[in-house]
Specification:
single chain, elongated
Length: 198
């Protein structure tokens, strides 16, 4: 009998947590400053100062109930366009850094997870805890195909949720409990010690 959704999700979470912690530690110690655009800190501080000049008084009057929500919204609408024009360059730099951070986390997770799966030959800590394993024709190429292209790549293309929901549906409602990556790679998730001839 092949493995259901719950065990697969829990094993992935167990495997993902240390990888995310490692990526975060590396980001905090080294990578964050390397990918930061020039003068980012100064630009961010200036953005916050400008934001304060535009909105602090308005927000304080609303918190102190000196104005109603409707009055707050009217005043906010009057100044937001000027604020956006004045901070256009700041926002571009801040969002650029934000995109760099997302790309760093995604790529570092994919790379570390793939290397981890290859080094453990699919017997990751999460899978061991859940007493499941990868079986089939295990090779570096097939693991790359399965874990990078048909798991990570597929989830990225479908913005995560769509691909994950399709995976859950395929595992839950198909008799063979297989995802697209299982079918394409010829690698299956089974219980420990169970070998399938097909």
């Amino acid at each position: 009998m092949r493995v259901g959704v719950f065990k697969r999700i829990v094993s992935f979470v167990f495997d993902a947590m240390p990888i995310i912690l490692i990526a975060t530690a590396l980001f905090t110690l080294f990578i964050g400053d390397l990918i930061k655009p020039d003068n980012y800190d100064a630009v961010y501080d200036e953005y916050q100062t400008i934001r304060g000049e535009y909105f602090d008084d308005l927000e304080e009057r609303y918190r102190n109930e000196e104005i109603t929500l409707d009055q707050y919204q009217i005043e906010y609408d009057l100044i937001i366009d000027d604020f956006n024009i004045e901070t256009e360059d700041h926002i571009l730099i801040i969002y650029t850094y934000f995109i760099y951070v997302i790309v760093y986390y995604v790529l570092s997770f994919i790379l570390v997870y793939f290397v981890y799966v290859v080094l453990t030959k699919g017997r990751t800590l999460g899978r061991r805890i859940m007493k499941i394993q990868l079986t089939g024709n295990l090779s570096v190429w097939r693991l790359f195909l399965r874990e990078v292209l048909w798991k990570s790549g597929y989830w990225i293309i479908t913005f995560g949720i769509g691909g994950i929901l399709l995976d859950i549906a395929m595992i839950s409602f198909s008799k063979r409990k297989m995802t697209l990556r299982d079918l394409v790679s010829g690698i299956y998730v089974t219980y420990e010690g169970v070998e399938y001839p097909f």
